[in-house]
Amino acid sequence: MANWTRRDWLASVSAAAALRPFAARGEDEAPNQGLRIGTFRTDVTPPLGHALCGGWIPAAGVIDDPLEAIGLVILGAGQPIVLCAVDWTGLLNGAQSAWQRGLAEAVGTDPSRVAVHCVHQHNAPFACLDSQAIIERTTELPPMLDLAFFEAAVSATARVASEAVRTARPLTHIASGQAPVDRVAGNRRMLGADGRVKSMRGSASKDPEHHAAPEGLIDPFLKTVAFYSGEERIAACHYYACHPMSYYGDGRVSADFCGLARRQRQTEDPGCTHLYFNGCGGNIGAGKYNDGSHAMRPILTSRIHDALVASEAALRPEPLDSVGWTTADVRLPPDPKWDAAALAAQIADPARSAVDRYRPAYTLAYLNRFAADVPITLSALHVNSLSLLHLPAECFAEYQLRAQSASPGRFVACAAYGDGGPWYIPTRAAFPQGGYEVSVSWCGPEVDDALWTGMARLLAEAPRLPGA
Ligand SMILES: [Zn+2]
Questions:
Q1: Phi, psi angles (nearest 5°) of residue 155
Q2: In this structure, is the dihedral angle defined by the CA atoms of residues 124, 128, 133 and 138, taken in order, positive or negative?
Q3: How many angstroms does the Cα of residue 155 sit away from the middle of ligand 1?
Q4: Interior CA angle at 418 toward 414 and 419, to 5°?
Q5: What gap in Å lies between CA 305 and CA 316, rounded to an integer?
Q6: How much distance in Å is there from the Cα of 167 to the middle of ligand 1?
Q7: How many angstroms is it from 15 CA to the middle of ligand 1?
Q8: What is the pLDDT of residues 286-329, one digit of tens each?
């Protein structure tokens, strides 16, 4: 362990004994039975022929490398807490709650204490039980999601999560680090002189103008939060905001460059479980630096891998002082431009392409969910002066930058791509600029206040720092 001596560790053990789990709003103070941590992983690769990215691109024809669900469970700070990252495109509405429920039952906790996030690769399953039900009920189209595969993936992950409880180790220390990522991310929304989006720079581009234009607004840092049992690093959670695709749309299932970099770290460091969370990367992609050629995937992989190593080099474990979990329910209003009856007619219309019937099913599923008043639950894990925020869908990068600047003195890492129900979550300022994300977001400009109010509440409930 870099820069962390046995003497440091022994000196810190007594401090760790004074750990105080803090009680979140409405939650009983937990008896201190000693914190423990367990980790789990399982394969969630779809079968050949499975729809990828919700049927918008060719189905799975080849498995280039496996997709995984990787997680950790923390015990002893009230009811168990679960963090899990899945190599899928998205988990929307009922599919998100099915994962939360499955893992919650497996470890004996409440689903609101389970954060499940997608890495958002596109040659991967995009799971929405509600839109699949709409498609099944009203069309002859092949499924966007194989329900038997979906249930098997949830059950397999639940099984390894319950095993992680059984084999959990004492959790004594935490550390954070960060490092800039070199030549990966760029803002996708290139603005013209009139302040409107003039060009969309996606995950890959051969347009010299896309390569020449500046990166624009991004969060350049990859962040790491690591959990220790004494001197041993048990888990490292990595956070970086960028669409994770080098190329896709060719039926070749892959964890792609972010997942491959994580896997390389895992091979080099087998004793520690490495989790990779995509941050608020809704408007961020690799198209400035990536021409989409096969040769670029290993190059982007090594750039992320270098940042993982550099971020870990900054880790300085400190004894745990406080651990807490807070939640905030938010209601993210759909844009009134979406009309349920019109969407239903599009879905039922056999003259439209399959893609143009699948997509309105996702929109309609979210409209139905909002009408049924099923909120989205944001959550945060606060440990010492660190806050890990768990956010929905495809948030714009501005949200995580805002969370960081609103919390001076705290280390704030954001995992987005939780509940994908509302899909893109632009900022209020982005709507008048137009552009792709705004045009296909189910939400309107009010989403900004609604989401930020919830995020600010999570941050406000973090334990006060000494002297703050
Ligand atoms: Zn996306």
A1: -65, -40
A2: negative
A3: 26
A4: 145
A5: 20
A6: 36
A7: 43
A8: 999 999 999 999 999 999 999 999 999 999 999 999 999 999 99
